[in-house]
Amino acid sequence: MMDVKTLYETLKSIQEPLGYYFNADQEKVFEILKALILNKDRYGYMSCPCRLSSDDLENDKDIICPCVYRKADVAEFGSCYCNLYVSKDWNEKKIPHEYVPERRAPEKSLF
Q1: Which of 6, 59, 79, 110 is 20 to 30 A from 102 via CA?
Q2: Using omega within 30 degrees of 0 as the cis cutoff, is the peptide bond preceding 66 cis?
C-alpha cells in the first residue's frame, strides 16, 4: 500500500506545474489522499472519495482522481468539488470559497 506522504509529494510534483495546488489545509488533504489510497485498494483505481463509486471502472472513469470535472470546477470556483485541488488564488484567499456544485450527472451514480 502506498503511503500518504509519498502520494502527496508525487501528485504535488505533477499537478502544481499544471496550475493545480493542494488545499492549504494539509489535514484535509491527507484525509482525502488516505481515502484515495483506500479506494485504490478497494476498487483498483483511485475514485473520488467525495462521490459514490460503482466499483465499475467504465462507469467511474469520470471520477478517477483527478476527475474530469476538476478543470471546470477550478476555473469557475477556484476549487474542485472535494476541495482537494485548488487554484493559487483560492489558497491565498483572493477569491471566495464558494460551494462547488456536483457536475456529475445524477444517473452516473445510480447503479
Answers
A1: 6
A2: yes
